[in-house]
Every structure is written in C-alpha cells, then in structure tokens.
Amino acid sequence: MKKHNFNAGPSILPQEVLLKASEAVMDYNNSGLSVIEISHRSKDFVEIMEKARALALELLGLEGKGYKALFLQGGASTQFLMVALNLLEKRAGYLNSGTWAAKAIKEAKIYDDIYEVASSANANYNYIPKGYDIPSDYDYFHFTTNNTIFGTQMKSFPKCDIPMVCDMSSDIFSRAIDYSQFDLIYAGAQKNLGAAGTTLVVIKEDVLGKVSRKIPSMMDYKMHISKGSMFNTPPVFAVYTSMLTLEWLKNLGGVAAIEKENEKKASLMYSEIDLNPLFKGFATKEDRSTMNATFTLENENLKETFETMLKEGGINGINGHRSVGGYRASMYNALPLDSVKALVEIMSELESKA
Ligand code: PMP
Predict the structure, then answer these.
(1) Which of 125, 170, 184 to mutate to test the pocket of ligand 1 (most atoms within 8 A of CB)?
(2) Is the peptide bond before 10 cis (omega within 30 degrees of 0)?
(3) In angstroms, rounded to a whole number, what is the distance separating the alpha carbons of residues 288 and 127?
C-alpha cells in the first residue's frame, strides 16, 4: 500500500515523476541507455539541464529579467558559505528565524561580523520576527522564507535597497509571489523539486562581481554561470527529477495553481489543530507555514494510541524535529489533499476515543 508521505525532506514527489524517472533509469527515451549512464556533455543531458534551468526561471516569473538558474551541489548548507564568499565585502544583515537561519549566520561569520537584524530564538523560533530595520549600506540581507523545523513562514517581505538573499529550501514553487523582489534564491531540491543531491540557485547576475576576495572556482557563481551549470559533473539524477517535477508543475498551471491546493491542505490541517482540544499548534497563527504544520498532542497518555492509529492509517513521516518535539506534517506541493484528509480523520477519531 502506498503511504501518506508527510516527510520533511527528502519528501514526497509526484507519482508521475517517480514513474518517468524509473523508466528513464532503465532506458532513457528508447536510447538503450540509462539517464544516469550517459555523459553529462551528451546532447540528451545538456537538453535536460537547459530545460530544468529554463523551467525554474519560467515558473518563478523571472525569465528575461537578468536572472540565471544553476543546479549546484553541496546542499543548501553549501549556499550558506557561497553566499558569503560571493557577496559579503563589508557587512551583511541576517534574520535569525530558525535553526537553518542560525547556521547560515554561523557560516557567514567566518568572513565577517554579521549583523542579526532580529531573532526569534528566545521563543524557540515559534514566530517570524517583524518590524526591524535593515541598514541600507550593507552588502545584502539574508532570510529564510520558510522555517522547516518550526513550521513558520514569512507572509510578507521587507522592502530594502540592498540585495535580498533568501533560503527558500522548503517553500520554493509553493506560492505565487513576486520573485523578482529577491536577488538570490537558493533551495535544496529534496522538498519541492526532486531527488536530493542538487540545490537550485537563482541569481540576478548584476549582484555578482562586487567583492574583492578571490573565490575558489567551485564556490564561484560566476564560474558556474559561465559554464552553463556544468563546471563539473552535475548530479544528473537529481537534475533530471527536478526537471520532471518542474514540467509536472507547469502542466498543473504553475505556482498560482499549486498555491490554491496548498492553501486547501493547510487550512484543513490547521482547522483540525485548532478545533481538536487534544492538539496544540506550535507556531504563532499569523506565521503558520503552509508547508510544515507543527503541533503537539496535549495528553501524553494518548500518544501510543495515536501513533498506532497513524501507523494503521499509513501515515508516514510526521514525527516532529527533536528541537520542537510533537508532530510535523509536511505538506509539500506533491502531497495530495487526500493525505491531509486521512491524517485529519485520524486526529478527529482520536478525539472521539478520548
Ligand atoms: N535550509 C532549510 C530551510 C532547510 O529546511 C534545510 C534542510 N532541511 C537546509 C537549509 C539544509 O539543506 P541541505 O541539507 O540541503 O544542506
């Protein structure tokens, strides 16, 4: 039986993507070769890479606006470092809204003093800090649009005159916003994009080339751009699955269409959390993420019963992160509404048993 997959990442991918990817692993387009056993310089693979790069820009509404898309390696964690290497000259401002934001700050601090514009660490990151100032003479402002662990999501973005850099690992392609307000976006593939192993980086080219340091080639965005995202051997399977997911999303109607689905799933999930007295939401209501819903079970005595019911119902991957505890239902683009219905049914059945 196929499980309801609420994993936080690596996480659910569209069935159609899994099917096409598994066929291509055996035989890519009747070529007699697997997609993972052909040269990355072959016409077939170059086409895949170019299509993935173009679709990423198209779906974000960034085509023809001076942006380049790259599929790099080393996870979003390497971007914490690359951003600083490529953009940090004097000082940068960072919003500390969660564990990943704090890790980004730690890496950037290797190069310079980082100014934390605001932090929600004192409340175990259960809200998004607001109402802070961003100094206009800084090199850039860095923030995390969706805090995967804590289930908080930025619903609006500050206006600032300096480049805006964001970690969008867990909510990229999930909603229709003006992506051109950001100058650099990065996101690990393993949530809304494809197999783990690649990180999408979308950069407005004119923010590059402004630092005085020498940048090692593998860390240099300009180098990757000049080589068409093929400076070295790319993670071919992760790029291929990303391309398939982007095609799937385009056929569905793009980010505006998937946003509607994501809203339906999130509102179903949160109304159960709010109405069912057995459960309590972790994140502040106004900052609740449409991608990751975090909640706790108030009565510990029901834990075993609840978890048996989850298991029997085929609900997979909803254990909370250790720093929050409780549960986390990740509802990425590929998760069907029916999976949320199945989870919510179990939660309300537990209430009737209690
Ligand atoms: N940023 C966010 C928001 C994340 O959720 C994660 C991983 N879950 C990371 C960064 C780190 O990504 P990676 O494991 O690809 O380095």
Answers:
(1) 170
(2) yes
(3) 8
Class for the domain spanning 15-252: alpha beta
CB atoms closer than 10 angstroms to residue 157: 15
User: What is the CATH number that goes with domain 254-353?
Assistant: 3.90.1150.10
Whole-model pTM? 0.98
Does the interface predicted TM-score (ipTM) exceed 0.90?
A: yes
Residue type for position 43: K
The pairing of beta strand 67-72 with beta strand 199-204: antiparallel
Cα–Cα distance measured from residue 15 to residue 245, given in angstroms and rounded to the nearest whole number: 10
Q: Tell me: the pLDDT tens digits for 54-93?
A: 999 999 999 999 999 999 999 999 999 999 999 999 999 9
**Probe target for ligand 1 pocket from 94, 146, 147, 169, with the most ligand atoms within 8 Å of CB:** 169
Question: Which residues approach ligand 1 with their CB closer than 6 A?
Answer: 9, 75-77, 100, 144, 148, 167, 169-170, 188
